[in-house]
Amino acid sequence: AAKAGGKNMARVFLPQMEDSLIMRARLERMLRDAFAHSRDLFVFYQPIVDLTSGRVVSREALMRWHDSSRGWIPPKDFIPVAEEAGLVYELDSFVLHAACRDAAAWTDEASVAVNISASSVGQGRLPGAVAMALAASGLPATRLSVEVTETALMSGGNEALRDLQALRDMGVGISLDDFGTGFSSLAHLRAFPFDRIKIDGSFVQDGDRRSDCAAIVRALAQLGVTLRVATVAEGVETPQQRQRIQADGCTHAQGYLFGRPEPTLRDVPRLREINALHVC
Ligand code: C2E
Ligand code: MG
Ligand code: MG
Ligand code: MG
């Protein structure tokens, strides 16, 4: 029986372990390949709305990867792989270039927000990459903002602050992403003058059922008012959530209620060709 159990375990457990190792290695190879050809990498855009005017004032650039055999691979699966494989600079540069080029063509003058991996803040290369993307596209620096998480500030130390200050000096906006998750500290808000705080969508959604989550959103929104920093509620999906976050004092919102991440018209033919118009 013990032997059978062992056999069973081997059958159930080992192949999974092997799978995940092989999967990582394969993902890394596929990702390098995708960067080399950049045919299967896309940048989608999701609107950020000013709650007072109801207008789209900004769009967040969200990276998308479609592999012919595996279909859509979500950022949460490939960004850690890029980080471990040392491909973060390539990833940042790719998104920055695409985002600045696309935003330069928007007729509504909305700004574009680009996520920057924590591991690339504080390396000293970020300001240069941003400057190159701005120069290549002609986009004014004031129409670009970067989104960083608290992890970037914690692991990047003074170097991280120096990189962000260099961007700030260029006129680029800086958003604190996913605020409230991870190791949130008000010291982060004092250490650096962010111009936007993004309140993680989990608080907005859990606020439907949990008064403590609703209270956290309210407190963060009030903090934004006091610090004169815009507060973006993420993950707003229902009119009720919109009403609540607006009453709480959030100045901006983002979520499926206002619009899903969508491809640019330029990418539509390619997406049709690979039969991948319907996405995450
Ligand atoms: P994030 O920066 O907090 O982006 C917001 C995420 O919430 C996006 O997921 C977006 O599709 C999703 N979202 C937006 N509205 C709603 C909603 O109403 N309901 C729900 N349930 N979700 C909503 P996505 O695109 O899968 O990205 C996940 C994370 O991956 C991002 O979180 C960001 O941290 C990272 N990421 C995405 N694109 C890039 C990129 O180009 N570079 C880097 N470094 N990170 C990226
Ligand atoms: Mg973001
Ligand atoms: Mg976020
Ligand atoms: Mg998030």
TrEMBL record:
- Top-level taxon in the UniProt lineage: Bacteria
Q: Where are the transmembrane segments?
A: none
**EAL domain span:** 24-275
User: Which protein, by its recorded name, is this?
Assistant: GGDEF-domain containing protein
Q: Which source organism?
A: Acetobacter peroxydans
